[in-house]
Amino acid sequence: MELPKASQKVVAAAAEAGLAIDVTEFPEGTKTAADAAAAIGCEVAAIVKSLVFVVDEEPVVALVPGDRRLDTDRLAEVAGGSAARRASLEEVRDATGFAAGGTPPFGHARALRVFADNALKRHDPVWAAAGTPTTVFPISIADLERLSRPAWADLSLQG
Hints:
The chain has 159 residues and is of the alpha/beta class. 27% of the residues lie in helices and 28% in strands. The chain has a single domain, classed as YbaK protein (Alpha-Beta Complex), CATH 3.90.960. Strands 1, 2, 3, 5, 6, 7, 8 and 9 form an eight-stranded mixed β-sheet that branches. Strands 4-10 form a two-stranded antiparallel ribbon. A hairpin with a 5-residue loop joins strand 7 and strand 8.
């Protein structure tokens, strides 16, 4: 089965960095962390949410475990800005080249700063979106760090 074009872009970005990823497609969808965890058969905490936010005027990506919520004030502080807001659907696609709900942690259309929540390190490997709301792939924390180059910080709130 041929992967969607967006997923092929993620596979190519990983390959360019020397990593072969195994993308799985779930036609019923993996748009939410709970959907993804149920489809994969893993804990919600092992899902990486790649969230696009705008800190002041700069789009950034925040990688947060599926069982946590992003603390936007903390993201703004860590990014050196004064405020953070969720990016619009158009801003997500413009900044990353991917649709919201399928945004991968790397392979974006342009260079973006990436921030990762320390709570992601509770699981290894973790599962991330592969460019669409129906595709995911497992990745080790070491490879996630190598490909996404995030600044690690405490960015999340429980539940």
